[in-house]
Amino acid sequence: MKKVLIVGVAAWFAASISAFGASGADIWKANCAKCHGADGAGKTAMGKKLKMKDYSAEAVSEEAVAKAIKDGVKEGGKVVMKPIAGLSDDDVKAVAAHMKSLKK
Question: What is the span of the domain harbouring residue 76?
Fold first, then answer.
């Protein structure tokens, strides 16, 4: 029950951000920064544990971002990132643009 509530709140939050036309940076902060870090370096506790890529040093395509957001990410059969529900195609493009801005 607790997991259902958490997932429901996360989906509602993502949908509410989308409804108000949040920027890619806002979506990143709300959904991605916990693991990937505000700067995309992946140096957070969770990022280190999951061996996150450093997106401040590594380029990523919009297609790869869209796939990760919509489908989640699995490595070795293990889910390392759950899909983010409720984002429009424009939101996904905004996140991809924000990720490109993180590259040093």
Answer: 2-102
Q: Which two tokens stand for residue 74?
A: 């699995």
Q: What distance, in Å, lies between the first and last C-alpha atoms of the chain? A: 42
Whether 24 contacts 94, CB under 8 Å: yes
CA gap 71, 53 in Å, rounded: 18
How many domains does the structure of the chain reveal? 1
CATH number for 42? 1.10.760
Per-residue pLDDT in tens (0 to 9) along the chain, 104 residues: 555 445 444 555 555 544 456 899 999 999 999 999 999 999 999 999 999 999 999 888 999 999 999 999 999 999 999 999 999 999 999 999 999 999 87
Give whole-number Cα distances, 5 to 1, 70, 90, in Å.
Answer: 6, 20, 27
Residue with tokens 């939101």: 91
The pair of three-digit structure tokens given for residue 36, joined into one six-digit string: 């990937």
